Amino acid sequence: MKDNVKVGMIGLGHRGMGLLEHIILPMDDVEVVAVCDLYEDRIREAADKVGQAQGKRPLETKRYEDVLALESVDAVVIGASWEAHIEIAVAAMEAGKYAACEVGGAASVQECWKLVETYERTRVPCMIMENCCYGRDELMVLNMVKQGVFGEIVHCAGGYHHDLRHEIAYGNENRHYRLRHYTNRNGENYPTHELGPIATILGINRGNRMVSLVSMASKSKGLQAYVKREKGADSALAATDFMQGDIVTTIIKCARGETIVLTLDTTLPRYYSRGFTVRGTKGMYVEENQSIFIDGQHDEAHNDWKDHWGNAESFRERYEHPIWKRFTEEGVKGGHGGMDWLVFEDFFKSVRNGTETPLDVYDMAAWMCITALSEESIALGGHPVAIPDFTNGKWMSREPFRF
């Protein structure tokens, strides 16, 4: 067991820098020994933060290969652009380094297979850092599902409902990779925030699996209207015909018969929501209005359900997940309401103990491939597309999620 985990940070944009400053450096048993990015100013800023926090500067480099070549590095945190995630994760496993990979979507099914095949050859763990799997509400609902409160689960839904027009429109100025994806691709480009918690509820890759999907995309008008308004009709970006549809809807069928609906909604004006919804034979949970409906308890509210909106908190004391009971007692810390801290705490615990990570390459491949498959389905006019079984049949007997 390692007392101290030595980490290399690869990718130091907004997300990577935030993780470094608010999660990684505050952890007592983690030492940052290398920082890497394509841009010199980001490298210097990160190295300054590490030097101030740890008393010595880390290795500074533009090449992730330099980080992986360091014998002292136990693990890397990958916060680079979406298209670089799997490439770097594969290289990390080849170098014998645990990989913590930030979320996003895959460019192809082939690279997802490469991820799995590299793990099966090297047996070096790689974890998709889906923080929403550690959300307080998501874990409470998971606990309720395990206790049978909602009966047999039939359907789940989720979405990435997040107005990102400013971030995308100013992608060139801020050196943000989302712009090039919205310019050139059309699909469910960010599936894992909604799909991760649903996968834990439905036992995906652990007694169940996703077998097929269909995706449809609306026309693309939101970004162009925003750019013309904010940057001017004569701006270079105003003439761009963005490929990415404003609303993308994906329907997934599972081996046990459940359905999943995912919605990507990032280029029209709206409030933030992940749209997390769970439907079972005895009740339902709806994240958008923080409500729980239980058969036999709320029947009288069928027609006046608004009177019960917000009642999910009343279930907290009885069904709070053990992870969050401990966390609240110790003191919640870290970003995104604490779930960033929890996902990295679990990752570094695996590195210290030399054990498998709670979310693994099979989860990463299955969740991230949805992007590439949705692009294919949209291009074919909503044609059904098969979802590969990255476990090669082992989903029928794999151990359940440890949550």
Give an overview in words.
By secondary structure, the protein is α/β, with parallel strands linked by helices. The chain folds into two domains: 126 residues, NAD(P)-binding Rossmann-like Domain (Rossmann fold), CATH 3.40.50.720; 225 residues, Dihydrodipicolinate Reductase, domain 2 (2-Layer Sandwich), CATH 3.30.360. 37% of the residues lie in helices and 18% in strands. It contains 15 helices and 14 strands. The strands form two sheets. An eight-stranded mixed beta sheet has the order 13-12-11-7-10-9-8-14, covered by helices on one side. A six-stranded parallel beta sheet has the order 3-2-1-4-5-6, with helices on both faces. Helix 2 links the parallel strand 2 and strand 3. Helix 4 packs parallel to helix 5 and helix 5 runs antiparallel to helix 15. The protein is globular and about 65 Å long. The model has no long low-confidence stretch (mean pLDDT 96).
